[in-house]
Amino acid sequence: MLKERLDPETLESLGLIKQAQQFNQKIVKIKTKLFYKQQKFNLLREENEGYAKLITELGQDLSGNLTSHLVLENIKSLIGCFNLDPNRVLDIILEVYECRSEHDEFFIPLIKSYMCEHQTLCHMLGFKFKFHQEPNGETPSSLYHIAAALLQHNLIALEDLYVHLLPLDSSIVEEHKREILEAKQIARKLTMVLVPSEKTEDKEKEKEEEKNEKPPDNQKLGLLEALLRIGDWQHAQSIMDQMPAFYATSHKAIAIALCQLLHLIMEPLYRRAAVPKGAKGSLMMPLWSKQALRPAESFDDLSRGVFTMLCYLGPHLSHDPILFAKIVRLGKSFMKEYQSESRQDTKDRMDSLLSCFLSIADQVLLPSLSLMECNACMSEELWGFFKLFPYQHRYRLYGQWKNETYGNHPLLVKIKAQTVDRAKYIMKRLTKENVKPSGRQIGKLSHSNPTILFDYILSQIQWYDNLITPVVDSLKYLTSLNYDVLAYCIIEALANPEKEKMKHDDTTISSWLQSLASLCGAVFRKYPIELAGLLQYVTNQLKAGKSFDLLILKEVVQKMAGIEITDEMTVEQLEAMTGGEQLKAEGGYFGQIRNTKKSSQRLKDALLDHELALPLCLLMAQQRNGVVFSEGGEKHLKLVGKLYDQCHDTLVQFGGFLASNLSTEDYIKRVPSVDVLCNQLHTPHDAAFFLSRPMYAHQILSKYDELKKAEKGNRQQQKVHKYIAACEQIMAPVHEAVVSLHLPKVWDDLRPQFYATFWSLTMYDLAVPHNAYDREVNKLKMQIKAIDENTEMPLNKKKKEKERCTALQDKLQEEEKKQLEHVQRVLHRLKLEKDNWLLAKSTKNETITKFLQLCIFPRCVFSAIDAVYCARFVELVHQQKTPNFCTLLCYDRVFSDIIYTVASCTENESRRYGRFLCCMLETVTRWHSDRAVYEKECGNYPGFLTIFRASGFDGGNKADQLDYENFRHVAHKWHYKLTKASVHCLETGEYTHIRNILIVLTKILPWYPKVLNLGQALECRVHKICQEEKEKRPDLYALAMGYSGQLKGRKVHMVPENEFHHKEQPVRSATPGTLQNGPGNTGKPAVTAAASTGKAEEGAVEDSDKSKDKSQAVQKTASKNSTAANKVNNSNGSSTPNSKEKEDKEKTTKEKKEKKDKNPGSTPEAKAGGKDKQKEEKPTDSKEKTPKADKDKRKDDKKEEKSKIDGKSAEKEWSKERDVSNDSKTKEGSKVEKSAGAGSMKSLVPRSEGVESEREQKRRKLDTHSSPSHSSLCTSFLLSPPVGDHVFSKPSSSLCVTRWSLRGGLWSPAVVGEQWGEFGI
Predict the structure, then answer these.
(1) Could you say which DSSP state residue 175 is in?
(2) According to the model, what pLDDT value does residue 348 have?
(3) Which of 755, 620, 617, 740 is nearest to 675 (CA)?
(4) Polar residues composition bias: which ranges (predicted)?
(5) What torsion do the CA atoms of 751, 753, 759, 764 make, to the nearest 10 degrees?
(6) 482 to 479, 524, 544: CA distances (angstroms)
(7) Nearest partner of 1007 among 970, 1042, 1050, judged by Cα
(8) What is the Cα–Cα distance from 513 to 306, expressed in whole angstroms?
(9) Which residues pair with 1047 in a beta bridge?
């Protein structure tokens, strides 16, 4: 102890040691031996025999019964015998393992048994990795393998080894950022406009960089690849989590290793559930390691690791198309199981798997497809999976793919830019001539990146609509998936919130929307694309109160079903549209509709499968009013009208499609009864009956066939009775249902049966268009003849074409025969029903009012065929001699006041209203043109029975028929009324009034104007419109010019007024313009005299409009001078007075006073004085121009032309009349003045103020109270039969005429007092 503690000098002094120096030397030797002298051999060169034996032991053949335990015992012996360093021995074991890395099952247990500390092994491996971290060094794969194997068996910790590996994580993050930046720069370069030489230089630089750049040795990725190859997903996932997303798998080796691991895991499940029929494939051996993931045996096993691995793989699944196909097939198999599963608990469990498959589709499958090089097979395979999803899921996936996926990966950024660049190249060169090669290029590009390609194509189509046809033709090389993506891209483009659907002028729909709508129709017709998404989009837009997108539905139905909606039909087309389906297809449309059977079936299936047929109809019907009251609040009136027309036209078109394509059962099942439609679903009445009408027709025919089969009988009479019985059974519930649609008061005049009959029939039921059938049959015969004469056509083609034409011809003839039988049955039914149609509870005036309000006016503007139907139905009711129906009053109501109706129509409605008036005028003209026709069709008909009820005095009434000459007077009065209304509308200056009246006038041109002076009046006003609107409103100018040209062409067919109706007046002492008790009326019927006088008075304005026709002015002046001695000139009332005229006027005044004294209760029809006239007209029609202003305006026009028509007496008379004072007018009280504002003819007798106030009081009373006297005065006749001298002495108040205006989709009456003179009496 002392030797150990004390220093040597002290020990020497104590005598414990001999010499201190010797003691120090001895201590040094002992320490050197103890601490520095080695007893084991650490280097091979020191003890090479021991290490040689060790290497021999480890390198022997391991295929026999040799185990790691025996080898370990031998190694221990060698260490002990040769004093080998255990750490060096471990290093040699690792070296040998590295060289023999395939023997994992031997070396792993050996190392596990040999070592005791994990840290030591980790340091040794780290030293080995660092040895290869030289600038040009390359780490061998065997080292990665042994490191991965040791990690898999937990012999080392990843955290310990990871720090020894290069590069650093921060370097990896920087590299990833640099890659993204480079990708964006490349994308920017591709979108920039560069000179071709610059592009070539850039490409060469890129190629050189790619050659020179060698990726640095990344030991972390090497280790990751090794881990994946042995199936150690847990450690591989940990390494991938340390790196940016998809950085590791962006390296091909890593991606392929992960794909291989997925193959192995999915193999059993794929073989069991997803191998297609007939496919064999090669079996894959599973991993030997027990630590590797277990293979998936069921779909639930996929969630253990497969879905996670796929998410890490991302778009780089593109490296292995086979694995891509396997996953897609597994998805298909799962979806079939999911859809067939009925148990709710299993389905809930499978919902999580469904969401996983959707995520895989979004994050892996679609991005991988983008990176695949034009693989159409994969696209079709993927569609087999996707088509099992509802379109909502698919469109969500496409949206993610298009708008988000391409921004997440550097490779996809480049791919997107390259796709756009290539798309630009193709679209620049696309024409009709090179559709096929360009289509192939588009198809090739679309297999991988359809969203980017279609987005660019659609943007080009929105700018250039002439691209639509070549683009549609070039899309024939697309896959099914691409077509579905195209549908999504179209919907997305339509719903783009950044695009305005109106042009900047706010009056028209944007051209981009029109172009896309046209593309929709063409694409969906030609290619088998699912329609559900597009139809639902339109439905949702309507739900939101937006009707712009109805343009899409209109185009789709038109192209796919061949149903056109246009109001510009020719007469021949319209006639063809009243026939059967075959005639409609052949002669009713502008384009030849062919091969629409498949496309219309697809449209029908889409509507029925998604239950959109009825909702679309109802939404369109409701949206018509929504356009006006909700949507059109701040929009231009012109745009509102267009939107209303578009909504209405699409409803008619869509309803027609459903009626012609849905089976009877489908239609009846989906369309509720008319009372439910109107009262519960708030559908307007016209639309409700439009939807229900085909259902009634189907049901009646079905019931009729059923009754025919039940009781067989071939006689025509029996068939008719069965048809009537079928109608009664089907229509009886309808008669009950319509009662709730209107107030009970309505049914006092109209029977529900009549109302339902009117709304349930169509033109197909009323008449057979024989001319149209003959015309189409003759066309087919001409085609057959042309085919025979064509020598160039092959014989087999000739035969086919002739067979087709012959078959069509037979079909048309059979259809005509069938329709003829049907019309005969319908007419027989109507003949039996007619006696119960109209009740006589109130006056005929009120009956006609309700008939027009509830039936004619709503339907005549519904469609062009309905307009014709309304006119023909009125004629049919007349021909059937329907009791209580006054044809004369009905026609008078239609023609007398069209201003309000015209002003309240949209553009298309005015076309239909004009067509209705044209058909009505056609009938009137036929009756007017020939006495024999009139006598045959109107002579003994109750519709032309005339009854006047006098109130307050004698209370008598008399009945008689209106004779032919008086009917001609009435017809002239109707023509005059149309002229007056037209002139008023043209002079308002309002856009809608002018446009609509010009459209109406164009439509009725074949039958109006027939009178020369009326035609000249119109020509003058229209010429003025042409001059005023040329610069301001070009569309009005175009309409006016078109009508003006056509009007000039019709001049040759016009006749003077005296030829149109007999204007001669009986010679008598008094002025014939007055109706009084005198000898002048005894010999001739008072009606004729009155009508003739009234017509002459009505001619005042028309005659004044002839100032531009020089010869007529001269002729008119001469005739005035020649008849001045025995007749008062009623045309202008301002001719130069002479002594003879003064005597006549004084005599007339005297006779008027005498008449007044004799009949104190009677009052004249109108005032003569200018002030009284203005006073009276103000409350009657305040919106129309006063007569004086209208007159002065015409006189000003005359004055401008005065230099051209100098010296003519007619012009002097007009200019003189302007200067006549009110005093001279009082003296010349017998002058006739005509009110252009209200259109009433003024009598020749001035009225006292007392009489006027009495009349005003009566009129106010009549306007505010409905009384029996009111009903009696609201007579339904225009002309009275000859009843002696006191024909017009009784009525003392104005005749009440109900005018109609369309307000909010409903026709509303406004009672306006009219003078007797307005009716030409």
Answers:
(1) H
(2) 81
(3) 740
(4) 1112-1138
(5) -130
(6) 5, 13, 30
(7) 1050
(8) 45
(9) none
Q: Any residues with CB less than 8 A from the CB of 194 and at least 6 apart, and which? A: 202
- Here the tokens at position 652 are 């008619």
pLDDT at 359: 94
C-alpha dist (Å) from residue 1084 to 360, 1087, 1130: 99, 9, 21
Identify the pLDDT of residue 63. 79
Q: DSSP string of 975-1000?
A: HHHHHHHHHHHHHS--HHHHHHHHHH
Q: What is the pTM of this model?
A: 0.72
Q: Which residue has the tokens 């007999």?
A: 1062
Instruction: Look at the block and give the residue holding tokens 């491996």.
Output: 125
Residue 166 has a pLDDT of 87
Q: How far apart are CA 54 and CA 78, in angstroms?
A: 7
Q: Name the amino acid, one letter, at 1207.
A: G
**Spatial contact of 701 and 760, defined as CB atoms under 8 Å apart:** no
Tell me the three state secondary structure of residue 989.
coil
Q: Give the Cα separation of 1188 and 1174 in Å (integer).
A: 8
Determine how many CB atoms are found less than 10 A away from the CB of residue 804. Answer: 14
- Quick one: CA dihedral 566, 572, 575, 577, positive or negative? negative
**Side chain identity, residue 949:** R
Largest CA distance in the chain: 192
In total, the chain counts a number of residues equal to: 1321
The whole-angstrom separation of Cα 986 and Cα 1190 is: 13
Contact 450, 481 (CB under 8 A): yes
Q: Please tell me the predicted confidence (pLDDT) of residue 20.
A: 84
Alpha carbons 114 and 93: distance in angstroms, whole number: 10
In the chain, the amino acid numbered 17 is: I
**697, two tokens:** 């027709």
Nearest to 959, CA basis, from 942, 979, 975? 942
Q: Which amino acid is at 1159?
A: N
Residues of the chain short of pLDDT 70, as ranges, are 38-46, 191-216, 288, 502-507, 567, 588-595, 631-633, 711-717, 840, 947-959, 1064-1321
Query: Could you give the CA distance from residue 531 to residue 556 in angstroms, rounded to a whole number?
Result: 10
d(CA 1235, CA 1185): 9
Nearby residues of 461 by Cβ (< 8 Å), 6 or more positions away? 467, 468, 471, 515, 516, 519
**Peptide bond just before 694 cis, omega within 30 deg:** no
Strands 945-947 and 1306-1314: unpaired
Decide if 1018 contacts 1054 (C-beta within 8 A).
no
Nearest Cα to 872, choosing from 765, 992, 1004?
765
Interhelix angle 118-131/86-99, rounded to 10 degrees, is 60
* Cβ neighbours of residue 996 closer than 8 Å, sequence gap 6 or more: 902, 903, 905, 907, 910, 985
Residue 1217, pLDDT score: 38
Pairing of the two strands 1306-1314 and 959-961 = unpaired
Cα(68)–Cα(78) distance, rounded to whole angstroms?
15
Q: How far is the C-alpha of 856 from the C-alpha of 871, rounded, in Å?
A: 8
